[in-house]
Amino acid sequence: MDRQFPIGKFHRPLVPLEAGARAAHVDEIDRMPASLRSLVAGLTDAQLDTPYRAGGWTVRQVVHHVPESHMNAYVRFKLAVTEDTPLIKTYEEALWAELPDARTAPIGMSLDLLDALHRRWVTFLRALPDAAFQKAYKHPELGVVTLDTALALYAWHGKHHVAHVRLVAGARG
């Protein structure tokens, strides 16, 4: 198994999503916080500070990374809906993961943030008309990204990191 990409790499959709696929991605985003929370329940600090692969982040860093990433995603969605293909700013996620809060803070605060953020994000997504998912933002590295593509990406992103945590949580025996 590829421990870096345990569910495989993300594949950008080549065509706009159909309504059923879009709804499935929104449902995945809706379920993701509970999946992550259940996996980390009962992990010790030693387990939280265990990397999911050699050279990879610890479970604690992953738990703190997900809401940081998804906060950026939520803002990008809002910018795309309210502006004409806005240029978004990237951030240095690897450097953020090395900051003291990501390395040592209790995970409960990030789990709570993720719960609230996803409730708000899912409410927003479910209220968008289908046409809004063809709106886009411009990413400095990825180019123009439609909201359909971003939706698929962030549904994948959540599952991707849940799978990372499962590598450690499943090994706890």
Rg measurement, Å: 16 Å
The shape, in one word, is globular
Q: Give helix % range.
A: 55-70%
Extract low-pLDDT stretches: none
CATH architectural label: Up-down Bundle
Tell me about the biggest sheet?
Answer: 2 strands, antiparallel
Report on this model:
With about 170 residues, the chain is mainly alpha-helical. The protein has a single domain, classed as dinb family like domain (Four Helix Bundle (Hemerythrin (Met), subunit A), Up-down Bundle). It is built from 7 helices and 2 strands, in the order ααααααββα. The protein has helices at about 20-40, 45-50, 60-80, 95, 100-105, 110-125, 145-170; strands at about 135-140, 145. A two-stranded antiparallel ribbon has the order 1-2. The longest helix is centred in the middle third of the chain and has 24 residues, at about 60-80. The model has no long low-confidence stretch (mean pLDDT about 95).
Keywords:
7 helices, 173 residues, globular, 5% strand, two-stranded antiparallel ribbon, mainly alpha
Describe, in short, the structure shown.
This protein has helices at 19-40, 45-48, 59-82, 93-96, 100-104, 108-127, 147-169; strands at residues 136-139, 143-146.
Question: What's the layout of helices and strands?
Answer:
Elements: H1 19-40, H2 45-48, H3 59-82, H4 93-96, H5 100-104, H6 108-127, E1 136-139, E2 143-146, H7 147-169
Helix pairs in contact: 1-6, 1-7, 3-6, 3-7
